[in-house]
């Protein structure tokens, strides 16, 4: 689906290992590990929607590519939430490796259930690459809404290669509105309309 060669090069530059696909722990609720292409993440950073002052939460962070790379590129603080211990340990090793390249104190990883994770009241950017089922997703969105009601602020959601079920559900929530999308179809050999980042937002009213 994407350029593995480019991914390996950037992994090497950052002294990390996040490539490959792993479905050993997947089931009807938790989906296989597959890292977001660096070319897609570059396109997201080029949008300037993530800044140094932002705090990003990545659900199903796996081996840590998204939090590490987005913090490296933008300077934002990032949090990766991952339930699988093997991936969590990989993420910690990767974080230790890339400390030679940038200040990794802005990145943290937590091994925890996405449904039970208490979203910090200062998180204002959230990234998803289809980490889990719609049942879990609904609970996660409810948790985010809870923190929004406690501490109203502008929150942006980034959905790469979005599931139709996710988008239909988001469209049913009055507080959440579609903001924009970032086309990524030109980054890959095969044309797939789902190769895009759909952006939704919670705004202070």
Mean pLDDT comes to: 91
Strand order of the largest sheet: 5-4-3-6-7-9-8
Number of domains: 1
Q: Tell me the helix content.
A: 25-40%
The first-level CATH class is given as: Alpha Beta
Note the beta-strand portion. 15-25%
According to CATH, the homologous superfamily is: Vaccinia Virus protein VP39
Radius of gyration from the alpha-carbon trace, in angstroms = 16 Å
Tally of contiguous helical segments: 6
**What's the N-to-C terminus distance?**
40 Å
Largest sheet: 7 strands, mixed
Query: What would you call the shape?
Result: globular
CATH topology: Rossmann fold
Poorly predicted regions:
none
List the helices and strands and how they pair.
Blueprint: H1 4-14, E1 21-22, E2 33-34, H2 38-46, E3 55-59, H3 65-74, E4 77-82, H4 85-97, E5 107-111, E6 125-128, H5 134-150, E7 155-160, H6 164-171, E8 176-183, E9 196-202
Parallel strand pairs: 3-4, 3-6, 4-5, 6-7
Antiparallel strand pairs: 1-2, 7-9, 8-9
Helix pairs in contact: 2-3
């Amino acid at each position: 689906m994407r350029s593995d060669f480019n991914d390996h090069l950037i992994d090497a530059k950052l002294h990390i290992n996040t490539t490959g696909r792993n479905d050993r722990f997947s089931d009807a609720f938790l989906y296989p590990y597959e890292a977001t292409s660096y070319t897609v993440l570059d396109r997201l950073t080029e949008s300037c929607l993530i800044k140094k002052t932002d705090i990003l939460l990545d659900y199903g962070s796996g081996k840590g590519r998204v939090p590490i790379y987005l913090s490296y590129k933008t300077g934002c603080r990032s949090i990766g939430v991952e339930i699988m211990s093997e991936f969590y340990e990989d993420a910690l090793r990767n974080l230790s490796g890339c400390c030679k390249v940038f200040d990794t104190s802005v990145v943290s990883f937590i091994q925890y259930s996405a449904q039970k994770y208490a979203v910090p009241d200062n998180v204002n950017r959230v990234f998803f690459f289809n980490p889990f089922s719609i049942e879990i997703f609904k609970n996660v969105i409810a948790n985010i809404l809870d923190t929004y009601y406690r501490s109203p602020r502008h929150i942006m959601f980034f959905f790469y290669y979005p599931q139709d079920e996710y988008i239909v559900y988001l469209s049913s929530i009055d507080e959440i509105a579609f903001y924009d999308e970032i086309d990524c179809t030109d980054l890959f050999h095969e044309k797939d309309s789902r190769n895009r980042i759909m952006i939704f937002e919670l705004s202070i009213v």
